[in-house]
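Why predict the complex rather than its parts? Because the way molecules touch one another can change local conformation, and only a joint prediction can capture that. The input here totals 612 residues.
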Amino acid sequence: MLSHAEASEKFIADAERTDWHDETLWFVRAKRDKASKVLPEWEALREHASQIKDHTLANLGSYLQAFEAKAQANGIKVHWAKDAAEHNAIVHGIIAAQGSQLLVKSKSMLTEECHLNDYLAKNGIEVVDTDLGERIVQFRKEAPSHIVLPAIHLKKEDVGETFYQHLGTPKGNKDPQFLTEAARQHLRGHFLASEVAITGVNFAVAETGEFVVCTNEGNADMGAHLAKVHIACMGIEKIIPKRADLAVFLRLLARSATGQLITTYSSHFHKPREGQEMHIVLLDNGRTRQLADPKYKNSLKCIRCAACFNTCPVYRRSGGHSYHQPVAGPIGSILAPNIDKKANADLPFASTLCGSCSNVCPVKINIHEQLWFWRQDLMAAGLAPVSKFIGMKLMAFVLTHPLIYRMGGAVMRRFSRLLNTRLNPWYKQREMPIAPKASFQDWYQKR
Amino acid sequence: MSAREEILGKIGSHDAVKHPGAFQGASSDFDFKASLEVVGARVVSPEELEVLFPGRRRYDKTMDGLSLADVEVLEIDGEFGVAENGAIWLTEEAMPHRVAPFICQHLVINVSEIVPTMHAAYERLGGVNSGFGLFLAGPSKTADIEQSLVIGAHGARSLTVVIRS
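Output of the joint prediction:
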């Protein structure tokens, strides 16, 4: 697997496309600014949302149990899964009991986290992703590169070619309107034929036992309301205490994500419809570990709006796939090391620590601070790249020995070209300045 | 030990943090019609509706969502609208089937009550009174191809709202 820096190098090889990616996401960020500034109470809303989440995390156990009891009383079957394997086995069991071999799924980053599609495919069950962006990347055997805009790394020419290959649209047609219509017709057939539908969950309300799913396309509802069996998969951190809390989160979510006033559909599933089976799978998969660590606990407040992606100067110029995780961007970089420290040791370093992510976060997660905490933990655990480890040790040694610092400085000023080689990653895309002949100390002593 | 017990055990207990209570200080000067236009809906008078969709009709309750697959224009009643974002609260009691507002090609919704914000909306709703309900704001849309807005992804291709007093 390529590290973030290595994968980014491939991404930015196409300068024109990199600029396009950068500008398109910045455009989404600008829409978020506009939609949030309309509300004078925006900052108070963020603070309120953050406090609700703090309160929820402090009482997570009792809220989960309250939610479970209410949901069961409403006729929903509740399952608990401690890791991805358990989650996938539970979902497979439900599908197998139904005897289905085809199912539709709306966007769920949690099922990406569990690699559910691959697991079901191995068991002879075909999953059709129904969000347009997800269907596009599924055809291409790629992962989503953004949690809200899964195909944002692609140009319309790419989508046109993919649909030509998989849906038989005319070669060369790259009109978004035409391609969306082709996907509508193609997926409508699957909606009408599928007996099982899987959806994600945006919010689950402990007070009522209902869960809310937000989409713009209507794909979650098309699947869930036509299927005999609806399986909703959620992380245990998606719980909120009260129904009235939804007002706060629904006002923040779409404005932060895409600059919309609200998503087109905010569906409140409270009871299965007559004759339907409804299941909820509650997944831990490392979330309780994150909860137990005061440094990282806050990351569980995330409502997956991706505002931190759109604002991040590194994400915009490196693309989601460089993060090699279902959730990319700044928030992904603080979530992933909790699941696998070693495999994701590069991600907390994929940041300038500029803090823009924390500034736009609707639930006020201190993302940039947690990136910095992870760097310290990874260095202490010996998981940072060897070159970084040695470099840091060398720097610490030089900076604590004034004589060596001065001698080293003199040598480097004389032979500054030594730094301007391919061995120095900073030199790859930058023109290094020519070092002045005298150091600041020399200059100061002469005055 | 079951996964449930294991997860609840790992969550353990934490220092008390208070719930902040109901949100105070929400703005209230929103225009429902203007918000509807932002979300891509069309607002018409009852007379204009007659001209636009003369053949529209209401549908009876059905257990079979698939039977609605060919519905061209569906007319239903919304419970109330939200001025800040153009969302309309719908419950399954007011529709032929849960899938109805999604599977039809064009949707017409009558609204006669408007609340200013989402906070007011949930206050108006109180407890849960329906097995399924939703806030619907505009027609189905997507921008998944190069951020180009396309109306009519999987759900209704258009939303027409009639505000009746």
